[in-house]
Amino acid sequence: MDLHFFSSLVFIVLLVNPKGVYGASFTFVNRCEYTVWPGILANAGSPRLDSTGFELPKDSSRSFQAPTGWSGRFWGRTGCKFDGSGSGTCLTGDCGSGQVECNGLGAAPPVTLAEFTLGTGGQDFYDVSLVDGYNMPMIVEGSGGSGLCASTGCTTDLNRKCPSELRVGDGDACRSACEAFGSPKYCCSGAYSTPATCKPSVYSEMFKAACPRSYSYAYDDATSTFTCTGADYTVTFCPSSPSQKSTPAVTETTPTIPMTGSSSTPQGSGSESGLTYSDNSYGYSGSVYTSSGYGYPDSGSDSGSGSSSEPGGSGQTMLTDGSWLAGLAMGNSATTAPCILLYVLIALFLMFSWHQFYL
């Protein structure tokens, strides 16, 4: 083996994985009429990003790089008050750290969540979940990737539409029915822990009507999990400017989508203020939202990290807080294709060096 052959191998690796060990960049944009404090929680086995929580003033942005195989969640904290030393709390989405940095702690519900798993040589999976309730408008957009790469999220101000029994404070956030009532029927737990027994409630249907592409209850995955390959992502808070908190209520638009079979990519068709999309694989009919076996439900409160296997699942992984993250069926994020290729290159380099030394 000569140096030319070794160089060719390096070129092939870069060709197969041009982004190297970096999976995607995440850019956070604040279009709200107020400051937002984003929180970041990496799942067990994923490294922390450059920050776990930071201040994002109005009309500002900040970007982070994430490695291939990274999985975790983002959310926005509102009404935060921090002193000169960085100590304080937030009115919504507080992570309980008492600091600007969340330091490995998750968001207290109700909160709007964006969840990601960056593919280990394959597709990225992402979603915006209202299963833990809602505190602010948020959308996710992919750029530079291949595939459908549809935008997802919720542009509607659900705080203005929230029923009194779910409302928090003076309309600061809107709780999920699970958090408000604690019933297994609403939490998809106990006798209601399967797609066959856990059905959408009047409350989840209200969320779904306002935000058709967001998770509205635990088994809403067929209409709410999105995929893209090799993209960078932008997470925008209050995507409509000025903030919808200061504008008239948005008219609800519920998509009418024919049931024409299932698709391995759960994008759908319909419309929402500021968002357009097409494809007919939602699996929605009337008031019933059917799961098509994608198996990435997201439910429960966001109180920590870690994972455990779900009996009866097919590669599905559930966090210890009871929630699910789209795409974990892709495999163990700790072992990625770039790492394997790197090990092969190191071995070949050592073999080449040994050969040259003993010639």
Automatic annotation (TrEMBL):
The lineage of its organism: Eukaryota, Viridiplantae, Streptophyta, Embryophyta, Tracheophyta. This is Thaumatin-like protein 1b. Gene3D superfamilies: Thaumatin. The chain crosses the membrane at residues 340-358. It comes from the Eukaryota. PANTHER family: OS03G0233200 PROTEIN (PTHR31048). Residues 1-23 form the signal peptide. The keyword Plastid does not apply. Residues 240-274, 297-316 are annotated as: Disordered.
